[in-house]
Write a structure and sequence with these properties.
- By secondary structure, the chain is α+β, with helices and mostly antiparallel strands.
- The protein has a domain of 87 residues.
- 61% of the residues lie in helices and 15% in strands.
- It contains five helices and four strands.
- Strand 1 and strand 2 form a beta hairpin.
């Protein structure tokens, strides 16, 4: 039902759909980029600080202020931390590169939704192309008032919040005897 709504929104107003994805993508990308850059700067600063601490420790050992045993323990600790920081810095730089590539993901997503529009039946390969993962939350309520929140994370763009559907347009299906499913659009809070 959610995929049908996305396809209908794309078909009705492709420019608005593309603009919505662009705004969402830019907001998400900027937030991820800013957080990653901040973490990277902290890791680089700590790496420089550990290098200076190691130099001071070496000088203190040479001057006899620190015993050889103490020097070995601390130098090992600093070396382990520097190796971890080096790996972290490399991973963060790679993440920044991948964040830069995310800017073109809007076009990939629109293409996948178009494929969905052309198909008569939803297939597993198309689902894998469109959807990254789905969060299924605990059932809330009792009896007819039971609800279950499901959040779809789309490949390339994450969570997509399309314009709200009026109550009269909510889709309701009888899936099996005694079980009715109603699609109610909500705002994702993942």
């Amino acid at each position: 039902m959610e995929l049908r709504r996305l396809a209908q929104f794309l078909e009705d107003d492709e420019e608005a759909f593309a603009e919505m994805l662009e705004q969402k993508n830019n907001k998400d990308i900027l937030a991820k980029q800013k957080q990653t850059e901040s973490t990277l700067q902290k890791a680089i600063a700590r790496n420089d600080e550990v290098a200076k601490l190691y130099e001071r420790l070496y000088e203190d050992n040479v001057n006899g202020k620190v015993t050889d045993e103490w020097f070995m323990q601390l130098s090992y600790k600093y070396e382990v931390e520097r190796m971890e920081l080096k790996e972290k810095i490399t991973a963060l730089r790679e993440k920044l590169i991948s964040i830069g590539a995310m800017k073109s993901n809007k076009d990939h997503f629109i293409g996948a939704v178009r494929k969905f529009m052309e198909m008569q039946m939803l297939t597993a390969p198309l689902l894998r192309e469109l959807i990254d993962h789905i969060d299924v939350h605990q059932i809330e309520g009792i009896g007819k008032n039971r609800t279950q929140r499901i959040v779809i994370h789309y490949r390339f763009v994450g969570i997509v919040e399309t314009p709200a559907v009026p109550k009269k347009e909510h889709i309701k299906l009888d899936t099996r005897q005694g079980v009715a499913v109603e699609y109610i659009q909500g705002i994702a809070t993942a």
